[in-house]
TrEMBL record:
Residues in Winged helix DNA-binding domain copies: 14-92
Lineage, top ranks: Bacteria, Bacillati, Actinomycetota, Actinomycetes, Micrococcales
Record field: transmembrane: none
Signal peptide extent: none
Protein name: MarR family transcriptional regulator
Length: 94
């Protein structure tokens, strides 16, 4: 893989998750799933990989009604995503 490219983030669905989350403080699981156009299990697996890498924080705030899962980029995740995008731009520029 090209130096600077991040193998964890590079997978298309994970790249899309990082790109989406980079513009927000957090997003609800269903929003991410719908944005990707995939099943719950696929979205969950991709988020788990990002969480295991320390790039995404998942939280389930308790309160009234149904408990929802929220995702946000960690500082490490934001840095890794920005470095990955910079490496892609450098690769494209030649």
């Amino acid at each position: 893989m090209t130096p600077g490219l991040n193998e964890v983030i590079h997978a298309p669905n994970r790249l899309r998750i990082c790109a989406f989350l980079s513009t927000l403080d957090q997003a609800e699981f269903a929003t991410l799933r719908d944005m990707l156009g995939v099943a719950d299990s696929v979205a969950s697996k991709q988020l788990k990989v990002l969480e295991d890498a320390g790039y995404v924080k998942l939280s389930k705030p308790t309160g009234k009604g149904r408990v929802k899962t929220w995702a946000s980029l960690t500082p490490d995740g934001k840095r890794a995503y920005e470095e990955h995008v910079a490496a892609l731009k450098a690769l494209i520029a030649g």
